[in-house]
Design a protein that fits this description.
Order of helices and strands: HEEHEHHEEHHHHHHHH
Strand content: 5-15%
Helix content: 55-70%
Number of helices: 12
Oligomer: single chain
CATH class of the largest domain: Mainly Alpha
CATH superfamily of the largest domain: GntR ligand-binding domain-like
Radius of gyration: 20 Å
Number of domains: 2
Structural class: mainly alpha
Distance between the termini: 52 Å
Number of strands: 5
Strand order of the largest sheet: 3-5-4
CATH architecture of the largest domain: Up-down Bundle
CATH topology of the largest domain: Four Helix Bundle (Hemerythrin (Met), subunit A)
């Protein structure tokens, strides 16, 4: 089975580090001499991704391998692999002989991600309305309650996660959990804008209100109303301001 261009680039990238001598490239997974090699890579990737999405590493911030290694207490190999994955995600850019930097937010990528998300989520509405139940309402309002707690604590990361949980729940209740997985793969650039908006407390309140209205419309089994509210809600994420 031939390696893809990404897998070959990944192997070449790692080969520039002496610590990669014990790493075997095998179809996109790392087998390390350390039993937790993969978890270290995931640790580095998740850390860097969160720093970028939350704005702690703003656009043009220089990503320095040694600093990341020191912060996380890990070697360069998993950090290098994490950075390569972030390059593939479009979250960082590598400039030869200069360094690696956090990528600027690309408006076109944000709009494309928003378009895909809106089409897929709104496409679930008919199934969602048909399958809605009191149990579904309780589950949805439980997530909204967690959002209120996150807002009260000014916890942006937790608020974003509960926002994700709400929309993931809707996809699952509609009977199409895989749709949410597809959305996740396309919206990383959109998330940078969404999370930035959460620094505005009034935006958090609007998100909570939207979610509550979506559930109430679902309880009425009003597909048209659900679509109007959901579409407005999703578009609000990139406007960042009330309509």
């Amino acid at each position: 089975m031939p390696l893809t261009d990404f897998q070959m680039a990944r192997a070449d990238f790692l080969s520039h580090d002496d610590e990669s001598a014990n790493v075997v490239i095998r179809f996109g997974t790392e087998t390390s001499s350390e039993t937790d090699g993969t978890s270290l890579y995931e640790k580095a990737y998740n850390y860097l991704r969160e720093q970028i999405l939350t704005g702690h590493f703003p656009p043009e911030h220089k990503v320095v391998e040694n600093e990341i290694c020191s912060s996380l207490g890990i070697s360069r190999t998993p950090v290098r692999e994490a950075i390569l994955r972030l390059v593939n995600d479009g979250l960082v850019v590598s400039r030869p002989k200069i360094g690696t930097f956090v990528a600027s937010i690309n408006p076109e990528q944000v709009r494309s991600a928003q378009f895909i998300r809106e089409k897929l989520e709104c496409g679930l509405i008919s199934s969602l309305v048909e399958r809605w139940s009191r149990t579904a309402s309780r589950a949805a309002f439980a997530v909204i309650d967690r959002q209120r707690v996150a807002r009260a604590e000014c916890n942006i990361v937790l608020f974003h996660q509960t926002d994700e949980d709400f929309h993931m729940l809707l996809a699952g209740l509609a009977g199409y959990p895989e749709v949410w997985k597809t959305i996740l793969l396309t919206k990383v650039h959109l998330d940078r804008v969404r999370i930035d908006n959460l620094h505005n407390d009034s935006h958090m309140e609007l998100v909570i209100d939207d979610h509550s209205e979506i559930v109430k419309a679902l309880e009425k089994r009003d597909s048209k109303l659900v679509k109007v509210i959901l579409r407005s809600h999703l578009r609000r994420c990139i406007r960042g301001t009330p309509q």
